[in-house]
Amino acid sequence: MLTTRLKDDNWALHQIAERQPTPGSLIKGTMPKADYLLVLAQQLLVNTALDAALKSHASNPHVSPLFDECQLLTPYIAEDLAFFGVDTDSIAPNPGTQRYIDHIEAHKDHPLHLLGLHYVRLGACNGNTFVARIVRKAYSLTDPTQGTRYLDPFGKAQRNQWVAFKAGIDALTLDQAQQDELFAGTRAAYVLSINLDLPEYTDANALLAEHGKSLDKSAFDEHHSVHVTKEMQEELTANDN
Ligand code: HEM
What we know:
There is one protein chain. By secondary structure, this protein is an all-alpha fold. It has one domain (2-237): Heme oxygenase-like (Heme Oxygenase, Chain A), CATH 1.20.910. The protein has twelve helices and no strands. The radius of gyration is 17 Å and the shape is globular. The structure holds protoporphyrin IX containing FE (HEM). The site of protoporphyrin IX containing FE has 23 residues, from helix 1, helix 2, helix 3, helix 7 and helix 9.
């Protein structure tokens, strides 16, 4: 199945991504709130670009069977920033954000590549349900609908939506080149996300060469993430079938 490839052949990049300073400090609860607001602000720019590009292909036969307006993440980020009283008119992209936006612009006529980028931001919501719990605790947010909607946009519906989205990808009829195009989008999304934390762009090969020896495939095989336990993983996936 295509989604098995998207998951298993990206395991190393997922592990590099979740070890970066931003996801790492969010899940450890060590990121200062002011920095969390900066992360949200940058994500607003990236997701605004991706939402617009994806929406322009909403009726494409490879996109329409899976696409739903509720998967557009910009409104959730805007809600979070409004909750914290952040002015969104004057956010300037940092270099990593600009690279991500440029990449989206360069692929705006490639719906399957965009679908790959979209797959990764929706997939990341799985781990982000755990991140959201820590963030709420760290910043004393008592209402789950306020301040962490970007991390946890779907609440209890998260897993059903994700399983349905993956089933939709597997139900597409794609030739090998089309599958490769979607896969390339997922890979690019991991690399661009990792690069959000890096001053100079580092491509996939350089990232894998740099981190390769310290990566732990058994952690991925057992519970997907270095930050979650087997029990947390089981809680997440309990009703998958
Ligand atoms: C603290 C950080 C993170 C944690 C704890 C985490 C954890 C997880 C967990 C538990 C899953 C669910 C695995 C399953 O379905 O069995 C998952 C899936 C996923 N995560 Fe993460 N993750 C983190 C960061 C990231 C980042 C930064 C990205 C993207 C750049 C990302 C992208 C994904 C994707 C695409 C999936 C779906 C994988 C697939 O089924 O293809 N994650 N993550």
